[in-house]
User: Fold this.
Amino acid sequence: MPRPKTRIQQKNSETILEAALDVFSAHGFRGATLDQIADGAGLSKPNLLYYFASKEAIHQTLLTQLLDTWLDPLRDMDAGGDPVVEIMAYVRRKLELSRDYPRESRLFANEILQGAPRMREAIEGDLKRLVDEKAGVLRLWMDEGRIARLDPVHLIFSIWALTQHYADFDVQVQAVLGAGHDPYAEAGVFLETLYRRLLAP
Amino acid sequence: MPRPKTRIQQKNSETILEAALDVFSAHGFRGATLDQIADGAGLSKPNLLYYFASKEAIHQTLLTQLLDTWLDPLRDMDAGGDPVVEIMAYVRRKLELSRDYPRESRLFANEILQGAPRMREAIEGDLKRLVDEKAGVLRLWMDEGRIARLDPVHLIFSIWALTQHYADFDVQVQAVLGAGHDPYAEAGVFLETLYRRLLAP
DNA sequence: GTCTATACTCTGATAGAC
DNA sequence: GTCTATCAGAGTATAGAC
Assistant:
């Protein structure tokens, strides 16, 4: 079913994708089973395959939806704004994504970690184009002396790494911090300090 | 076979682990198959299971060996040394680990990402203890005013995130940078700058 | 649209000859 | 120690009744 039309179909599709996100993000593509997804969605396995042609198709749908959401905060970085304000806002939004959508972050991480077999073109296309564009903006700000001179692409990498770490390695973060911590609140403070110092001209 | 004894057994065990590292790091535990490992090792599947009791046992052996290597650079951080020198050396060694042992990094990342079902205790035990100890060292240095005051555990997290990113998200890094780049050389320069600015009192 | 039953493939593990 | 043959279970997908 390429395009769900009725309200019931719409609702069931969403239920399936929601359950699939749970399972794929926790176990990776091959580790996930249709049984688990069917259980989570409260549907039978064949019924799943009435809505989506295959396990592959469910996964693909999730990934496609994901990339757009994932790139939004970077798209929002405005060349006309104040450099430090814009970059700090990007860091904050990216950290909020990790906090509010950790499953999506892990789904993405699983895919990249295993060589991005189902996202290659999106990464080499849309993602690269956007990074190139925003790296240009950062370079301009550096040329104008408004932020410190750094490799702009690696600056973007650093934001990805530092924010996604809290979602992707959540288990480790929790285990090392122990009880009585709010990882994301602490990370927010830490990253604020880090980037203010790093960017100061 | 818990303990290989002859030279042939020793050699075969190592060949199997080497092939297994390739496969597990690229596909995760469930995505990996004994057939792939057997192929890579140039042995038959039953022969694999003559050396290791199960697929699980091979994986477990790799993980156990890994953690020790992984923590060595942090162990080396010397409370008696110069703070900035010690921390920069840790960052450099950790980045070298990512560069020279990316498969190990991805094996670890796969495991944590999926909730560390086979490493929970190691993380809550050895790893947490070591981090607590070294966080104490960092805190002392901050108290003495020798480096800037920051959350010491999140400082360690940041080093993990920034260095492992280049191994774990290698595909993305390569795709975004495009041809003609040496990611690890550039990362080395970037991280040197980042931590010097961050740590300056 | 949804279910039960089932076909078929893949995979981890074992038996047993050599 | 190593192999061929094979089992048992899990997993994706389909057939067909309702």
Observations:
- Chain A has two domains: 1-53, 59-199.
- Chain A is about 80% helix and 0% strand.
- The domain at 1-53 of chain A is CATH 1.10.10.60 (Arc Repressor Mutant, subunit A).
